[in-house]
Structure formats: structure tokens, C-alpha cells
Design brief:
Layout (H helix, E strand, L loop, with lengths): L23 H11 L3 E3 L4 E6 L14 E4 L15 E3 L1 H6 L5 E2 L3 E4 L8 E3 L6 E4 L3 E6 L6 H9 L1 H10 L10 H5 L2 E3 L3 H35 L17 H7 L9 H9 L3 E3 L5 E3 L10 E5 L14 E4 L7 E5 L4 E4 L8 E3 L8 E4 L2 E5 L4 H10 L1 H11 L9 H5 L2 E3 L3 H37 L4
Parallel strand pairs: 3-8, 13-18
Antiparallel strand pairs: 1-10, 2-9, 3-4, 5-8, 6-7, 6-9, 11-20, 12-19, 13-14, 15-18, 16-17, 16-19
Helix pairs in contact: 1-4, 3-6, 3-12, 6-12, 9-12
Organism: Candidatus Woesebacteria bacterium CG06_land_8_20_14_3_00_39_27
Keywords: DNA-binding, Restriction system
Protein name: Type I restriction modification DNA specificity domain-containing protein
């Protein structure tokens, strides 16, 4: 049994008498920070506030001022793949919540409370939603690269975890953020951390560019680099065609779908290209499994993570066992591009949701197929079966019937090489970030730099 004995004088205010707040781990961290030169986050910031209240999605645009929502805060080095934008006018009306590159955003509410991202230099200005806490960093008071890394380290995360107010869904109070203790190191140490974060950002950008090169190579070889779908206002469909697919909704028969398929030239269905895994297995109720669900696939990068879940707590559709190297494709909202190659090291007690179609195939075919399906070739074909429905899903059969262009093995290999280099650069970026966090933690544990 682990317990703490707390003197009345140690209680941090009358509203904090809950035992969880005084766990030994938190007390040790608090004592370690007390011995160091610190400032509260409020004193290192221009402001800490929540974002625009109750902004309708009708205001979202495909370009303009980036608008940060909780769905964007998955990677500490913010992913811009699924970002939405605001018009300049909407942004100006809400200029009090304007942030700049180098500022920080936290998930304030929901399942991933306390998640943190650094706003990149891709854009100068940003804005953010009401479920996000924004920190406008006083860049004259502290190096924002160091501050970001410190808050990602266990000494930042554990403070956030400790201060998190549990009530229903759970939320992170702004006052809790303002009172976070920040260890102030030397300028030399701040610059050392900055160099690691800058290199991590550069390597991540390289990863993005390598993947884009793979997709560009594919589209160029197929003559689809500047592909535009026809915007027909009217079209005629034979009754026999509607009977064949048992669909009569106009959206399904939009000419753009057949136009794309015809542009692919020589092709074959996915089921002739790869074998789908369709074997479920018996879950042991008391065994711990590594579970992958739809939200664990990063649609911007194709990265996949997992959660440890005891068998009896797994969802009913957690039924497909994987051994590493498989290609998984989301059947739910498929056009988002939640398509990933399972890392080879994910080979022990791994289970994926039945909301994925899972295929087993070797390189370079699996990397090639990932690029095809995440490109307009796959997304447009996966869009077609979901038309006319309020909750877009497709079936395993829909997936197996997707048309895959026939491309020379040499080209497939070039695409696969670019994808693997992209994955390697992404891994390196994460390693640099972890190195920066480790250095911050070691500095604090030594009592300063």
C-alpha cells in the first residue's frame, strides 16, 4: 500500500483536500521544484485563455487563418493536415484570442485533457476554439522551445495531471495552467533545447515532403497530377445500372467516379492485389492487450499508436489479431485517410478494431497501396459508397472492390522507398523530441544546469 501523511499546514487551500492530489509522486515532484528557481506560467505569458466561444462550423474555410481545435492537438509538433481556417474578418472579430507561431495550445476538455502542441512557423497568426486553452508566450521572458519541452516533460505533465479537475467529462482549469511552476534554466541550456526542437521540426517537415514526393510520383506516372473532376449539372443513368448496385440516389452516379476509374487505365480490384485478414480470435478476459482503434491512426502522417486494455474491457468489435506489417484501412469516414502500415514491432498481443479492413501483403506493395488509398484515387472511390448516408461507412466488400492501378514494380519500389524514408524521418523527429525532454528532466533532477 502507498500512502502519504499530510500536515494541515501542507494543504493547498480548502478546496484541495482530496487524497489523489497528495500522492507521493506528486509530493516528490513538488518538493524537487520548490528547491529550484521557478516562475509560474502566468508570469511568463501575455495571456492564458480559452478560445472562441460557440463558433459555428459554417465559419470554417479551406484557407485563411488556421483555427486550432482539440482534434488538431494530437502531435506535440502540431499537424496541419486536418486543420480548418477562418476568414480574416472572423478572425479580426475574435482578435482577443489571436495566437502567433511559438505559442502553445492545450486540450482543455475531453478524453485527451492536457495534451499540448507548439504552433509552428508555417503561419504567423492562429486562432483557437473554446475547448482549447491558448498560451501567448512572453518570448522576452523565456525561450518558447524550452517552455514547450518543459511542459511536455514529466515535470510539466505531472503538474497538469495533478491539477486536473475531475468533474464528469473532466476539464483543465485556466487557473491551474496559470499556476504551473516552470523551472528557469540558463540561457545556454535554453538554446541547447531550442536546437533539438528546431531539428525535430525540420526532420518532421522532411518526413512530410518525402511522403508528398511519393504521392506526386504515383499521380505523375498515372497522368493524374493535375486531375480535375467534371462538374456535370445533369447526367443520365440507365435503370439497369441502378438495379446492378441497388442504389437510386443521384449522388452515387455522379460522373466524376467513373471518370476517375477510366483514367486509371490498366487496373485490378484490391482483393486481387492483397489478402484481407478476416479471422477473429478468443479474447482472454484478464489478459492485457495492445488495442488500436480508429482514433489511434494519425490521418495526417499515417502513424499508429495503441492503448493497453484488459481483455474484459475491450470493445465488442475488438476482434482482429495482428502480428506486425499489416495494412489497416478505416471503414468509418474512410475519406479522412486513416490508413496505416502496422510497425513490425507491433507483434505481440495486438488487436485492432473491426472498424478496420486489414490486409496482409509484402513490400513494396503495401507502401504503394497505402499511398494509392490515401491519395485522390482511393478517397474518391471510398467516397462513392458513403453518399446518401448521415454516417459515412463502407463495408469490407466495398473495400475489396476498389480499383488499384497497375504500376510497374520498379515504380512501386521507388514509392515504397520514399514512404520508408518518410517513416524514418518521422521516427528521428520523435527521437529528437524525446532527447530534448530527457535533457530537461535530467537538468531538473540534478538541481539545475
Amino acid at each position: 500500500m502507498t500512502f502519504s501523511i499530510i500536515q494541515k499546514s501542507q494543504l493547498e487551500g480548502a478546496d484541495r483536500i482530496d487524497a489523489e492530489y497528495y500522492q507521493p509522486e506528486y509530493l516528490l515532484i513538488s518538493e524537487l521544484l520548490r528547491r529550484q528557481k521557478t516562475q509560474i506560467l502566468k508570469n511568463l505569458s501575455n495571456f492564458i485563455k480559452k478560445g472562441i466561444f460557440d463558433l459555428s462550423p459554417d465559419n470554417y474555410r479551406s484557407s485563411g487563418i488556421p483555427f486550432i481545435r482539440t482534434t488538431s492537438i494530437k502531435d506535440p509538433l502540431l499537424d496541419l493536415e486536418e486543420i480548418v481556417f477562418l476568414e480574416a474578418g472572423t478572425h479580426q472579430k475574435n482578435h482577443s484570442t489571436s495566437l502567433q507561431s511559438g505559442d502553445l495550445v492545450f486540450t482543455k476538455i475531453g478524453a485527451n485533457i492536457g495534451d499540448l502542441s507548439l504552433l509552428p512557423s508555417d503561419f504567423y497568426e492562429y486562432n483557437f476554439s473554446q475547448n482549447v486553452a491558448g498560451v501567448s508566450v512572453n518570448k522576452k521572458a523565456i525561450n518558447f522551445h524550452y517552455l514547450f519541452t518543459y511542459l511536455l516533460s514529466k515535470y510539466g505533465r505531472k503538474q497538469i495531471e495533478r491539477r486536473q479537475m475531475i468533474s464528469g467529462q473532466g476539464k483543465l482549469e485556466l487557473e491551474d495552467l496559470r499556476n504551473l511552476q516552470i523551472v528557469i534554466p540558463s540561457l545556454v541550456f535554453e538554446r541547447e533545447i531550442e536546437s533539438l526542437i528546431v531539428e525535430s521540426q525540420r526532420t518532421k517537415q522532411l518526413s512530410i515532403e518525402l511522403y508528398q514526393n511519393a504521392e506526386h510520383l504515383l499521380l505523375e506516372k498515372l497522368g493524374l497530377k493535375d486531375f480535375q473532376t467534371p462538374q456535370d449539372l445533369s447526367y443520365i443513368v440507365n435503370y439497369s445500372d441502378t438495379k446492378k448496385v441497388e442504389r437510386v440516389d443521384a449522388d452515387y452516379f455522379q460522373p466524376k467516379y467513373e471518370f476517375l476509374v477510366n483514367k486509371l487505365g490498366k487496373k485490378k480490384e484490391l482483393f486481387k492485389f492483397a489478402e484481407r485478414i478476416n479471422t477473429s480470435f478468443k479474447i482472454e478476459p484478464d489478459k492485457e492487450y495492445n488495442y488500436i482503434e480508429i482514433g489511434d491512426v494519425n490521418v495526417g502522417t499515417g502513424e499508429v499508436v495503441f492503448n493497453k486494455v484488459v481483455g474484459k474491457e475491450l470493445p465488442a468489435n475488438a476482434k482482429i489479431k495482428i502480428c506486425g506489417g499489416e495494412l489497416i484501412i478505416s471503414k468509418v469516414r474512410p475519406t479522412r485517410g486513416a490508413i496505416a502500415i502496422i510497425p513490425d514491432e507491433f507483434n505481440k498481443d495486438f488487436v485492432v478494431s473491426g472498424a478496420f479492413s486489414v490486409f496482409n501483403l509484402a513490400s513494396p506493395a503495401k507502401e504503394f497501396l497505402q499511398v494509392v488509398l490515401r491519395s485522390l484515387i482511393g478517397k474518391l472511390q471510398m467516397e462513392r459508397p458513403t453518399t446518401g448516408t448521415s454516417y459515412p461507412t463502407i463495408t469490407d466488400q466495398d473495400m475489396e472492390n476498389l480499383w488499384i492501378p497497375s504500376v510497374k514494380v520498379e515504380t512501386q519500389q521507388k514509392i515504397a522507398d520514399l514512404v520508408r524514408k518518410s517513416h524514418g524521418a518521422r521516427k528521428k523527429s520523435k527521437e529528437l523530441l524525446e532527447e530534448a525532454k530527457r535533457k530537461v528532466e535530467e537538468m531538473i533532477e540534478k538541481g539545475g544546469d
